[in-house]
Amino acid sequence: MAGTMDCSFIRTLINRYCAGEENWVDSRTIYVGHKEPPPGAEAYIPQKYPDNRIVSSKYTFWNFIPKNLFEQFRRIANFYFLIIFLVQLIIDTPTSPVTSGLPLFFVIAVTAVKQGYEDWLRHKADNAMNQYPVQFIQHGKLVRKQSRNLRVGDIVMVNDGETFPCDLIFLSSSREDGTCYVTTASLDGESSHKTYYAVQDTKGFQTEEDIDSLHATVECEQPQPDLYKFVGRIHVYQERNDPIVRSLGSENLLLRGASLKNTEKIFGVAIYTGMETKMALNYQSKSQKRSVVEKSMNVFLVVYLCILISKALINTVLKYVWQSEPFRDEPWFNQKTEAERQRNLFLKAFTDFLAFMVLFNYIIPVSMYVTVEMQKFLGSYFITWDEDMFDEETGEGPVVNTSDLNEELGQVEYIFTDKTGTLTENNMEFIECCIEGNVYVPHVICNGQILPDSGGIDMIDSSPGVSGKEREELFFRALCLCHTVQVKDDVLVDGAKKSPDSSRSCIYISSSPDEVALVEGIQRLGFTYLRLKDSYMELLNRDNDIERYELLETLTFDSVRRRMSVIVKSASGDIYLFCKGADSSIFPRVTEGKVDQIRSRVERNAVEGLRTLCVAYKKLTQEEYNEVCELLHEAKVALQEREKKLAEAYELVETDLTLLGATAVEDRLQDKAADTIEALQKAGIKVWVLTGDKMETAAATCYACKLFRRNTQLLELTTKKIEEQSLHDVLFELSKTVLRCSGSMTRDSFSGLSTDMQDFGLIIDGAALSLIMKPRQPGSSGNYRELFLEICRNCSAVLCCRMAPLQKAQIVKLIKLSKEHPITLAIGDGANDVSMILEAHVGIGVVGKEGRQAARNSDYAIPKFKHLKKMILVHGHFYYIRISELVQYFFYKNVCFIFPQFLYQFFCGFSQQPLYDTAYLTLYNISFTSLPILMYSLMEQHVSSDMLKRDPSLYRDIAKNALLRWRVFIYWTFLGVFDALVFFFGAYLMLENTAMTINGHVFGNWTFGTMVFTVLVFTVTLKLALDTHYWTWINHFVIWGSLIFYIVFSLLWGGIIWPFLNYQRMYFVFIQMLSSGPAWLGIVLLIIVSLLPDILKKVLCRQLWPTATERTQNSPRQCQDHISEFIPLTSLPSPSYRSNELTSSPPASRSHSHSKKVMLTYWKSHDYSVLPLGFNFSNNYCKSSARHCYHGSGLETPE
């Protein structure tokens, strides 16, 4: 025995350290309670794991200054100004180092204080978390210690309401069935109670002594951040018996940060601690997204850097050309020393070049970055504060997760949206079920509430015969058993129920609204699901008898299989496999049943926009079940590729099924979803719907929400089409169809709003997309993609159905990286939308019923899809207008500032003499001109928000980065050069050979520079005032206040002898200049002349070539009187109008190629009509005797 153990030990060491065994890399072994495995088991090798400390802070007391400085100087602008500052310190430069150092260190200090404070708050939170008391088992007793001292392998006890201190394997609980309820709101935002299950062989250990006697080891994967994935197995050792091996999955893993609810206590073993917990691994920030404005800003910065170098180079060359004559190089009053004469010429030239770089470096605005950061940060609050985007129903408002992309909302060209929960409410209502060709319509239930005056089971078709009754009841039992629904604990459900009506008190909980709707619907058909207790599912049948089924296996749902199954054993010993799922995944596995009739009904319901599921079953013998059980057990306990092995096992089990029937559930459109899509299309934005639903259901929804219109010609690129023709032929045929009309189509028709011209809608499914994206021979794959993109460009709307989550991200990436590089936005509400939200330039999460994973991973979160309209058309428009003006204005005012300095060198012998005083150089960007542009970039509204909502086409004026194109940038640059020429030469001509004072004194060079600077400050400030359309008291205060501040500062700076200055060259200069009448006149004239070209350009362009925005500004009354189709109808005076989609869009305009049949049935002596979704009704029916009209879940009384 010892020899065997030694050989095993040596073999293990060789495999792990030499052979690189895969298990060693991908898994870890945890000894529960730190107990060594018994003799004969694998050798005990202690492993080191981190402690349970959480560290979310970036800095410590010792590394804050060096680390923070390093991070800040990694930014090119900061590093550039640091170099300039060092040059000023090292060599003799014309300006004081203070002029560069003070603004730079002001920026660095403000940023460091902000980041230091934020990190201090993180330290406080970490300390509170790490010092939290935790109870764990030691020698059969409870011991309390701080959370940070927990180690992997410790057995921890958690009480009701407490938070799990680390990631735990759930061993046992105070509940007899070995379950516990957990909320994961702090992890993924889901507030509903989730059920977790203890290990089957340890759930009986409910006391401290019992759990301390447990002898087990856990093998599991290494830490990874996926909250919903876990693979492991546990070996439970018993006396003289082989260890019992059980699989461990995410249902056994209690995550740090989650809270225990409605359970007295639980015991668990720590497997991941500290920074290895899934919560800590999810601290890592998402990849940084950069807006198109930021990219343009960096390009412009490079251009200005080139201009700066060119200026310095030109002045350096001209200096030595100027000094080529001896009397200029060494005049009699400034003789050189011997050391200066013998100095290296190239070194002198390089020093002069650096000096000119320092002199002109203010053309690169250091304060622009600070202003942009402040503008983005403060501007983001306008979204958060917007009351129009607050949803009263949910109590949710918009959330800004990043402010770096505010302006990107104004540049969106493509929107990719999920369907379920985003366009629709994800509020499922059971409509009907079809069993063996017979259609059953239950009571109408919506969210657990039964609509009034609807009772009994109503059938559209004739009742089934006696032979069909068994299948009918088997179908109902299948829906009662094949699900993951839980019954809420605080509602006691037992066998005391005497009628199905008493089951109304049942409150069902599930992560899937479809499942709750199905269980509630079947409840009205006579079968009520009661509970799951001790692995037995209980249901109440039509005869009020309780039936018990043992739950043997659950084959969980996933987005690839698109189905789920359960294996149950009845009281009589019969074993059934019940399977429900999408028709595409059920029909290929069916060998019996009325397939044609049920398929026909499924297709009909799909055309009407209903969500359909098919139900099938298979009866298993005990031998067959034993084989299935063994196959599933092998897959479940595998540590490597468990998901793949489980999928293969499921494929083998779910075969040779008998089709029972199908269900139809309705998911109503969200309020104003159609108006929102119509507005976005009118704005020139292409909207794509990416969904996992089947094609017919998704297409009906697209018609209802106006993505497809009555004149839209649908093009199909689906698996069915490709089976008839090759992919190559289908693509070329579609390409010919769309390109034939593309020559005559304009951008307006592309938006899908033209009713006179033909437009196209493309439908593609996931399988066809896989073929297009599949790597092929060199060259062919790219051709297919380009052809597909060419087709998509010429379609007004695209519907992608049967999409896996990864395929959604592939579609977004394909469009994002196409040759036009359009700006993309993805919006969704579920975990399956996270990949496309992260892939798009802008990701928006809808706070939906599928949890908050999408909202957590998004850049912005909104309560409803309708809020996207204001976020893009209003907020996005304003953000882009404001920040583009900010960027262009900063470069303009710095050209105006530095170009006179450049010109001045031609009149001072290129001696690097500064034109402006040091105080003016330092404060120009920090004080004199900073606040007006900051307030402008926060407050400006060139058009009212109401007008932007009423006329979405105004969004097109700013498309394709219109305000930061090269043409606009060059105009602003030349405007700055022109103004600088006026400042300089205007002042030069006025002061040249002219006495400006009464006593005949001639002004000196500092007066000349002060006059230029005064004209400069007034001109750039008044230029901004001319560009301001939306005046508030804040604008008035900062614009006129900045000018007054400049005057007061100049008077004080030059009017007082400051004791801390060694010399004061500006003493009395400003006062002397203002005492001259001609100086006043000159300043006024120069300001007027400087502003005149921009005023003329604006007037001429508005009159001759006005944009849509300028036309709107020119005729505000006309716009206010105009009632657009996008005005809420509730704002109209007539009381007969209602704010719903039926009013704003008559049924005639929503007709499409699908047939519109009216189904009539008879319910309890009243006539009802059921209209398909093609009419944009959602389970609408009229009850003629009561004079009431039901619209979904709402109730109206007609006048």
From TrEMBL:
Feature: compositional bias, Polar residues: 1131-1143
Region Disordered, residue ranges: 1131-1152
Domain P-type ATPase C-terminal: 855-1107
Main EC class the enzyme belongs to: translocase
Residues engaged in binding ATP: 418-420, 515, 557, 580, 611, 691-693, 802, 808, 832-833
Family: Belongs to the cation transport ATPase (P-type) (TC 3.A.3) family. Type IV subfamily.
Protein name per UniProt: Phospholipid-transporting ATPase
The species this protein was found in: Phascolarctos cinereus
